[in-house]
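Handout, page 2. Input:
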Amino acid sequence: MSQIFPELAASGLGERADRVATFLALTNTDDAPNRIDLIILAGNGVLACVDHAATLARHHGCLLLITGGVGHSTKPLAAALSERLGCAAETLKDLSEADLLSKLIVAASLLPSDQIILERHSTNTGENAKFSRDLLAEMGLKPHHIVLIQDPLLQRRTEATFRHHWQAGHTSFFSSPPFIPLLGDVRTGGSWTEERYLSLLLGEIPRLHDTPEGYGPRGKGFIGHVEIPQGILDDHAVLTRHFTTQAGR
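Output:
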């Protein structure tokens, strides 16, 4: 196993982390029909999502909707893009996440600009879902089969959020993260700092868990019920105990 995250590697809990990460990185496009009407890319700082979204939009010959205003990922995304595009970060500072990602796609000739729709105002996952739905309605577009792409560690919650806010019988959602964030995969180390990886790995399960503290119907009501296998809850509990103890030292 790669030593990309030294603290996690030293803990001996890598296999548990991989199981939780695999659960979070929901992938269900095997069930999708051949015809996909729309790709939705939610703004995030994992640049592998950009190439993946553009590739799928080209393959299916469909529109790509990028959703994201200014949020937690905007600053690191702008920094990553300035390095990849070879431009000063200052020139990107006032752009939304949707604009930043679109700029990269067009600059790299991954898709033409007329194949891209931008939703520039959402600041969280719930708004990603609601504002995308409203924008498509304004444009008179009614996609039936949509593929969602997000930071792999946020993928399962993103699909649960879109399903909850759309609640439309004519729309089916499918999740397709760019990769599964396993610790032996070099893309994992290149996509998150260890601190960010652990923050998402430990934070997402409580959000998904349908408890008074979670985002489900018994809690904040941001998403529908998500079934979490007991084994994943057990792995998460062990990881949380370990890293909470470590942080307290």
